[in-house]
Each structure stands twice: as C-alpha cells, then as structure tokens.
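Weekly structure sync - notes
Attendees: PM, LS, DV (DV joined late)
Agenda: review two folding runs queued last week.

Item 1: First target. Sequence and structure tokens pasted below for the record.
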Amino acid sequence: MTYKPVDPPFELNFEEMSQKGLRAYFDWFLGSLSEREKELEAEVRRAPGFETWTADRTPASLDALGEWFAGQVEERPLTDEEMAKGRSSVPEEASFLLDELPTTTPTFRTLSLTFDVGAYLGQVLLKNCEGVSWQQVRSGKSYHDYGQPVLVGLGPVRCSPLLLVMTLAHGIADGKKSGTGLRKLYDIWSSKKVSG
C-alpha cells in the first residue's frame, strides 16, 4: 500500500474563494482529520525504524514523527514558468531581491506530508491544551493565514500549525532545521497556553 496524498476538492486560492467556499473548505478540513491521521500513521510505519509509531496525539509522538518527517522533505527545481511568475511579483523598487528568490519548491508529496504533519501537530495541541479549538480566518485577506485552519486559545496570537510545519519543511530542506523542530513547535505553543 502506498501513501495517498491529500486531495482537497477545492482549488486552494483562498484570496479568491467566496465565504461559502471558505466554509466548505474548513468543513472538509475538519472532516478529513481522522482519515489524514490514519494515512500519516500508515506512511510513517512503512519506514524502517518507525514500524511501531502510533498517532496517539501525545507530545512524545512528535519526537519520532519529526525525525521521520526530516527524512521525507524533498524539493524540486522551479520550472521556468514558476521562476518567471516569482520574478514578476517583485516590485521594481525591490528588484535587488531578485537574486534571493528561491529556485526550488517542495515536491507534491512533501506538501501533502506537510499538511498531514501540520494537522497532526494541531490535533496534539488540541488534545493536550485545554480551551483550544480549530477556527478559520475569514477576514483580512492580506493575512498570511487567511482561509487557513488555525488554533485559538493558545494565547493572544492564533497558531497556524500547517504554516508552521511548512516553514519547518523549508528549514529542513535548507539544512537549517532538523526534525527536532516539530517537538519544539509544540513546546513553544503549549507553553503560551500556560503563560498566556
């Protein structure tokens, strides 16, 4: 059996989605959590050394999951079309940044695993921190987490586990982060609940 990537029945261009479309996406997200968790657990268990890993939503489960995830992150070169699109989005006054634009992007499998690991991180926080719930950002299209499922109740700032894990994946790909970052994310956000 092979990994079944996440496949939302939506075009995920959040800024252009109607409020009804955003609600439908959020309902789909919440409804898919259990299935995606099972898919993630099965994929992790297929890897040598991780055969006994269980998605039990404990903070300790994030240690092995992070180690496994770090070995899964892959990038591919951007196509000429993707490079041109990125370059065209840089304003003329910031053209000095053109040489800093990325030349790679996560593979489709990595994006799917990032979704699954981010959703699982959210579920671990939800289980272990009282008063936390999933919500969706539906106002302020300029916010980086607009349309995204986020956790509220961890302090004054909402937590976007999917975006946090995407950032971690980029750091892993660049060699600046390791799999221990996953548990660190949990520790940071769960401590906000205690002190927030």
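Item 2: Second target, run right after the first with the same settings.
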Amino acid sequence: MTYKKYVEKMKEKSTNSAPEEIVKIFRQAAKELKDKNLEDQALKVGDKLPSFSLKNAYGEMVHIEDILKEGPIIINFYRGSWCPYCNLELRLYQKLLPKIKELGANIIAISPDLEKYSFTMQERNQFGFEVLSDINHEVSKQFGLVFTVDQKLIPIYQKMGIDLSKYQGNTAFELPFPATYVVNQEGIITLAFVDSAYELRLEPTKALDALKKIKGVKDDSSH
C-alpha cells in the first residue's frame, strides 16, 4: 500500500474523532502557513548539500561526508517521534531498505528530537538506518526548512500529549517542514520534496526511483 493510501485511512479516523472546532483551527493554521510560501527558501534540485555532523540514536557522531563516501543518500527530515505521519513514512522506507542498499545507497532520518526520543524511534520501529538528532534545528535551518509553530496550536498539541519543549529540549516551538532529499555521491541534490502541509510526503518509491536514476538502473516497475 502506498503512503497516500495509508494516510487516507488515518485521516478518516482522525476526522471522525477530532472536534470540528479543533479541525478548523488546524486547517486555518495550515492555510496561513502555506500562504507564507516558506518552502521557497528550502534547498532545491541542483543545490550543494551543506556539510554537517549529528549524533545518532546511540549518541555516536555521524558525519554526512562519511555516508557520502559509500554512495548516494536519501535524507528524510521528519517532525518528531510523536508524529504518526512520520512514523508511517519511515516504516515504508524501512520496507524499501533492502532495495536502497542494493543500489549502494543509504537513507538517514533527521528530526529535532533529543537523542532519547530518537533512540525510542529507532528501537520501536527497528529501523536499519541512522536516526539523527538535529538539536535546535541547526541542520534543518541550513536546508531552509524551519518554521515557528502557530501560537494557537501549542495548547492543542499539549492536550494531545505533544509537548514540543519536552521532545526538543527548548522552548522555541519550531518544527521542520517534512522534507525528502535525494543526493548523489558528489553531494548534489537530484530530488527535493518540501511541503508545508505536514501530511503530504513524497512517496518513498519515488525516492527509490531517483536513486535508480543516479545509478543508471532502468526502472523495472516492480513497485
């Protein structure tokens, strides 16, 4: 099943359970965010990948240059371990991991979560790829992905059990746009997907297709 199909089912359930007033607030905040066109600031196809190092779920420093030495990379920015859409998306990447590895490529997932929550994310889902903590959004800001959460959403998040200050270790109330980048071994972005609508994501199979294109592998349409 595709990411889109899974999300359609999730939205049916959430729409049925969430009060209409809350749904309206989320829709209005989403529209206001979209109208700012902040995605236009994000890195795009043809841009050079910035140099960065982040700690993984086990407290080890991971350098992007070391991963690039092995081959192309899918870089996925997600909002946090609390986000059901992010969990779904990354589980679909986990299913594709054998095909990603066959191409000599890697995937890394980056969020503003503290390391202990990245550890929970990694262990709960048994991910076979690096889950990195971007404390204070240092790397997300280099990619042009960070925005400030609408004030009226913060108490709603908290009522839902989502305390961003707890997960991130700060009170900035910022989040990254969920984003997916495919980068070739020279560090050049060959595919970029960024959207302020948090439920909209690139189909993971599209990222796999982009890796195949980099490697010169013909698509067998098996997915």
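Discussion on item 2: The radius of gyration is 17 Å.
Action: LS to circulate a short write-up before next sync.
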